[in-house]
Amino acid sequence: AIQLFNEPNIHHFRDYSPVSEDTTYGDEYATLIASIVPAIKEVNPALQLTVNTGGWPLNETLVTEWKSFFTSIAPHIDFISLDMYPDDNQTTIQQLDDWVQDFKNTFQKEVMISEIGLPTNAGRFTEADQGNYLSQSIQILQKAGVLGILPYNYRDESRNPNTSEASFGIIHADGTPKESYISIMGALKPTGDEADQPQKMT
Question: Greater confidence, 175 or 193?
């Protein structure tokens, strides 16, 4: 599968700048998708194409914005991808299933969770929090029947290690697993089997 750009609802597809309130932007992007998808399919008809949406905080307002964005795009892609960050909000976590079903029913497309994560830098969440809340979210999304779930990120970044963006990994930058690793990887297994402890990456 190929994802056509990254979070085009918040990053302009031309220069990755923030998307303004300009109401013509969505139409411009939809026109682009409508023109390039047939060209790609002509080369490889079996290739699955998707578009993802992102943003934070995850709430009903954001989800409504996503639905509006996909209205003119969904007919041209094979499945919908959503970047979902419910954090530790129990109300939001419990709504994940409803939102996925809403997208499936509205657009008659399967849904992929292209990003989900929780940072573990000082002052935000602990590794135990990451394991607890991400596992909860993943289990609910599995039951919702999504195509797949991609945790963001697998490994912490070594650059600027004290920032939130660098600490989304489920293993540390040095390759050792976080406290959350086993529960998250276990939740990702459709059978619910326990995950194996990883070997240290170098």
Answer: 175
Q: Is the pLDDT of residue 195 over 60?
A: no
pLDDT of residue 20: 83
Average pLDDT rounded to a whole number, residues 52-62: 97
Give the tokens for residue 33: 């998708």
8 Å CB contact between 131 and 183: yes
Per the structure block, which two tokens stand in for 192? 């619910």
What are the φ/ψ torsions at residue 114 (nearest 5 degrees)? Answer: -85, -15
pLDDT in tens, 76-116: 999 999 999 999 999 999 999 999 999 999 999 999 999 99
Q: Are 95 and 87 in contact (CB under 8 A)?
A: no
Calculate the alpha carbon distances from 120 to 77, 159, 184 in Å. 34, 15, 14
3-state secondary structure labels for all residues of the chain: CEECCCCCCCECCCCCCECCCCCHHHHHHHHHHHHHHHHHHHHCCCCCEEEEECCCCCCHHHHHHHHHHHCCCHHHCCEEEEECCCCCCHHHHHHHHHHHHHHHHHHCCEEEEEEECCCCCCCCCCHHHHHHHHHHHHHHHHHCCCCCEEECCCECCCCCCCCCHHHCCCECCCCCECCCHHHHHHHHCCCCCCCCCCCCCC
pLDDT computed for residue 192 by the predictor: 47
Residue among 75, 139, 145, 142 at smallest CA distance from 110: 145
